[in-house]
Amino acid sequence: MKGKYITVLDFEIGRVFQYESLKLFKDGWNGNDKDDSENIEWYLTTVKGHRLNNIEWMIHDNNNILHDNWYTITN
């Protein structure tokens, strides 16, 4: 699964989070074309403290966020 960013919609606290791709997964996320959902979900729950039943997440390459019909650059 390729992508430079992961965006999380956390419905429990009503916030959106964006994380940069991690290189700590030697054989997974950020390099291989396999399904890395388990690695990503481990990171989101164990490292970042999200609860899977309260979030939606996606991987993508562009860190721009569309807000009120205008692009806002986050970095």
| Sheet of most strands | 3 strands, antiparallel
Strand content: 25-35%
Mean pLDDT: 79
The count of β-strands is 5
Quickly give the structural class. alpha+beta
N- to C-terminal separation? 23 Å
Strand ordering within the main sheet: 2-1-3
Rg value: 13 Å
Number of helices: 1
Helix content: 10-25%
- Low-confidence stretches are none
User: What shape does the CA trace take?
Assistant: globular
N to C succession of SSEs: EEHEEE
Set down the secondary structure blueprint:
Blueprint: E1 5-10, E2 15-20, H1 37-47, E3 55-60, E4 65-67, E5 70-72
Antiparallel strand pairs: 1-2, 1-3, 4-5
Provide a descriptive summary of the structure in words.
The protein is an alpha+beta fold and 75 residues long. The protein contains 1 helix and 5 strands. The strands form 2 sheets. It has a 3-stranded antiparallel β-sheet, with no helix packed on it. Strands 4-5 form a two-stranded antiparallel sheet. The longest helix is centred in the middle third of the chain and has 11 residues, at 37-47. It is globular and about 35 Å long. The chain starts with a strand and ends with a strand. 9% of the residues are buried.
Keywords for this structure?
75 residues; alpha+beta; two-stranded antiparallel ribbon
Question: What is the structure about, briefly put?
Answer:
The chain has 75 residues and is α+β, with helices and mostly antiparallel strands. 15% of the residues lie in helices and 32% in strands.
